[in-house]
Each structure stands twice: as C-alpha cells, then as structure tokens.
Amino acid sequence: MLSLFQTHAHDFLTGFGWTIASSVLALIGSLILGTVFALMEVVPNKAANIIGRIYIEVLRNIPLLVITMFFYVVIANVVKISGFAAGTLGLTLYTSAFIAETVRAGINAVPNGQLEGALSNGLSWWQGMRYVVLPQAFKLVIPPLGNQFINLIKNSSVLAFVAGMDLMYQANMISQETFDTFGPFIIVAIFYLILTMPMSYYMRYLENKLNKEG
Amino acid sequence: MSMIEFKDVEKYYGDFHALKDINLDVEAGETVVLLGPSGSGKSTLIRTVNGLEPVQEGQLIVNGQDLANPQTDMNRTRKNVGMVFQHFNLYANKTVLENIMLAPRLVLKRDEAENKKIAMELLERVGLADKADKMPSTLSGGQQQRIAIARSLAMKPKALLFDEPTSALDPEMVNDVLKIMREIAADSSMTMLVVTHEMGFAKQVADRVIFMADGQILEDSPTEEFFANPKEPRARQFLSQIIH
Lengths: 214, 244
What we know:
Largest sheet of chain B: 6 strands, mixed
Oligomer: heterodimer
Order of helices and strands of chain A: HHHHHHHHHH
Structural class of chain A: mainly alpha
CATH superfamily of chain A: MetI-like
Shape of chain A: flat
CATH superfamily of chain B: P-loop containing nucleotide triphosphate hydrolases
CATH architecture of chain B: 3-Layer(aba) Sandwich
CATH architecture of chain A: Orthogonal Bundle
Number of helices of chain B: 9
Distance between the termini of chain A: 47 Å
Radius of gyration of chain A: 20 Å
Largest sheet of chain A: none
Number of strands of chain B: 10
C-alpha cells in the first residue's frame, strides 16, 4: 500500500486538495445560506416564512447526489459549469438546509425575552437578531453545527460522480488503472480521517467546555 | 398633553378577548399604577403600549403615533418608550456596560465617549458602577433589574413601562429597585406606567390607580381616593385580600 501511495502520491494529494477546497467553500457558503434561511423562517413575515420553509424542506429531502446531478447535467446545459463547481454547489445547497434547521433551533432556544428586551430598548428586529439573539444562538448550536461540518466533508465524496477531481474520484481512477480495488480506498479513507477526526475531537472538547460553563 | 391614549381598544388572542373596550388617558409626566388580580390583563395592556402585543380594534396613540395602525413604525415609538420587565431581559451575551451602551450606539448613533460617560453615570445612579464589566448572569436579580432600568434610561425616553419589576426578586432586593423607581417618578417630565403588587409604592408614588379585572378597566381613580374608598366591589375585595 505504501508503494501504491508512492507511485500515485501526486494523484492522492491532488484529490486531497480538491476535497479540502470543496469542503471549505461549501462550509462557508452553507453557513451563510443556512443562516439566511433560518432567519427567513423566524422573521415576522408570512411570505418569507413560507419561502424559507419550502427551501429547507425541498433541499433536505432530496438526495445529495440528485441535487449535484441537477447542476452537472441540467444547469450545465445552460451555463458552462465544471464538475467541481457542480459538486460544490450541490453540497452547499444540500448542507445549507440542515444548517438552517440547526440555526433555527438555536434561535428558538434563546429565551424570547432577549428579543423583547432589544425591541423595547429601541433596536429593530434585525439589530436585535444580529447583536443579541444570533450570537447566543450560534453558541448553543456549536456542537450540532460541528456534526454538520463533519458530514459535509464526508459528503464531498459526491464530487467523484461528477468528475470533481476529489479524493474519491482519484481513488476510482487509481483503482481502475492499477486493478487494485483495496489499496486506493484505504488510503483515501485515511485522508478523510485526517480531516474529520481532529474536527470530531475539537467538537467534543467544545461540548465539554460549554457543558462546564453551563 | 396625552402621552398614552387608549380609545375603545380591543385585543384578542385568537378567540380569547384579552382587553375589552379600553379607554385610558395618561398625561405626560404622570405616574399611573395598574392593579388587579392575575390574569386581569394588566401585563397585556402595558405590553401593547410599546407594540410588543398588537391590538386589533380602536386607537392606541403613544407619543403621537397610533399603534393600532399596522403601518405604524413601532421602532419610532420604542425609541421614546422604555420597558422594564419582570425577568429583566438583560442581553446575556453582553457585559453590563455594553447592555446599556448598545441601543444608544445603534439607534441614537450617540458618540462613543459620550455614550460611555452617560452609561457610567447611570450605573453610578443605580449604585452599580463597580459591576460595569461583569456579565449579567453573575449578578443578583435586584442588581440585574437596576441595570435594566439604567439601560432604559440611557435612551432618554419620554415614558417608562414597568411590568411587575419586583415580582421576581428576593424580598431584600425589592427596596433597592423601588427606591430608584421613586426617584424616576419624582422627575416631573417622565411618564410612568407601572404594573405592580407593591401597594406601598402605589400609595406613595402613583398619581392615579387603574384597577383591572377580566380584561376591563373597572376603576380609574386618584390614588388617595382609590385606597381610601374604592368604588368597585371587585376593587374593594382585591384590596382586602392584599396584606398591607
């Protein structure tokens, strides 16, 4: 297996790089989109609530692969789009629905008096959210958000289906080339663990820390 | 001049008729205490005055704006009408000083140095200048409530609403809060509407007493008259049940 890694180090590292790139982009994008749609669900405006609800329910209940294929096959007919871009977009939208649900749960867990205090102090609804409620909500949902991010990294393997150059894609390529079906996937699994394990431990650490703070 | 004026106001929670035919006029500078058994609609009424609860019918004119009109910008009213809550509602993610400085900074665009100066003066006034950098959760209920009052005053409001400000406090903390409220009431320009069960405070400070039951205003009398000779049988019964 070591020799397999040595002969294909460049491919594995390229895949590792694309997996990281896709994960980081999707993480930032889904955190922003997820927060926006969480706010749409709680803003005092019926139309926004409905749009937010539909977005979350639709994206949450379609397989990631279907969303990704939609970008790669359907959208690519209209706009030229690479496999990497299609995969990262699919991953972003899919994850954003789960993040929206998580953030919304956090907002709902902040006592209502916090927003009422802000409103009666003269702050607008948006200011109350931005400066008082959201900071508290994010602190509450750090552990579940961390789980979403770990899922996101693992789910980035969907890029392999759309020629996204990522770790999983490289593993497929190498196994087809070398007829070794075992080695490449073990190596790739180790790469994924390098990304997810520290995150997993960090989340556990944060969770303990927050529990102690009460 | 009226600061707060209810004209034939009705409020519903779904089918529940929470406020019935409310007519009430609070003049600028007046201190009015709302009394009544629990569930009588006192808190609901006071929460409508800064738009935390919408009303469905009638007119509710606060500082010249009709809050019964859904088009009204509630924020403009809230800038001028502060509120102190039973459970303080201090921002849990901000220090004491930041609690006081946040709204003047964001809403009034007050200069940062001046903002801090005013906040510190207010903390001195409520006797808690040494707690400026503490988080609210580390303070006692009475201290939190005094800071909540300072936070409201920092906006230099024309009116202050108090929704059972001492009900969640340990008995030994109550007097510190009432003392500050008395000082505010002594300021002739401040309009105060207070829901409380503190009869001593009501007798001493209120210009008028409003007695509510079942979502209605049953009596609206000058303070001395109300305590000496309540007109309504329900008010008489209520007073007799309160330990003086």
